[in-house]
Structures are given as C-alpha cells and as structure tokens.
Amino acid sequence: MKKVLSILVLSLLLSGNAYSKIIELKKCDRGTFKYNSKYFDKRSFIIDTSKSTVQLVTILTESQYKKDEKEFIKKFGSTKGLERISTIDYEIEYVDNKFVKATKDWKSSRDPDLVTTIEIDLKKKVVFMRIHKNHNTRSKHQCK
Fold this sequence. Notes:
This protein has an 8-stranded antiparallel beta sheet. The relative contact order is 0.16. By secondary structure, the chain is an alpha+beta fold. The protein is built from 2 helices and 8 strands; from the N terminus they run αβββαβββββ. The chain has helices spanning 2-15, 62-76; strands spanning 22-25, 40-48, 53-60, 85-95, 99-105, 115-121, 126-132, 137-142. It starts with a helix and ends with a strand. It is 20% helix and 41% strand.
C-alpha cells in the first residue's frame, strides 16, 4: 500500500509541470532603438507558461545608470523613480508553440484606462507591443 501511495504521489509531482516552459527572448531592440551592450546588461522578454506570465526585464549597465542618475537629478531634483533593474509583468491570454498573447492592465497606475497588449511570434523572435486608450501606440521589438 505504501508503494502504491508513493508512486501515486511521485507521479503527481512529476506531471504537474510537464507542459510548462520558460522561454527567453534576449537582447531585444525597440523600433529603431537597437540593443546596445553599452546601455543594457539585459533587455529580455521572459515567457513562463507555468505562471502564465510574460515579463519584460531591463537592466541598465552601471555606467548608463550613473549617466541617467545625473540627468534625473538635474531634471527632477532626485533619483526617485529611477531604476537600474526594471520589470513589467504581463498576463498570458493565449500561448501555443508559435505565438503568445499577453496583457497588462494598469488599473493601479495614474491612468486607470490604460492597457498594454503584447503579441509574440516565437519563431521570428518578434514582439509587437500595443498601448490602448484613446490612442493606439504600437512598437516592434526584434530579439535575438
């Protein structure tokens, strides 16, 4: 009986993440702004199907952060709001072997009607981002 129970528990543990994947699209450009290792240590979209999330991760190089810090202080008087590591989480609405669609509802921000949608072509490593409200702003991110 203990063996049967052990096998059952083990099989449940192993089968839980059988279809989950983590895919990272790295060194992503944004429109005509090309990825440059002088500015970024990382600029990636990380797709985690087990959590149903897509995360945009941007990490500035130390030298770029220091440059931005000086400009921020000059412009705003402090570094409040400046981050070296920036993350934005999107909720996956659809995923298959070729495409991912995810959204971010910004209800807690200053603009409660703002929604961002991203559509990812996994084969071409292209992310289309659209910001909805009274206007539609669209950008293309080509990744490596």
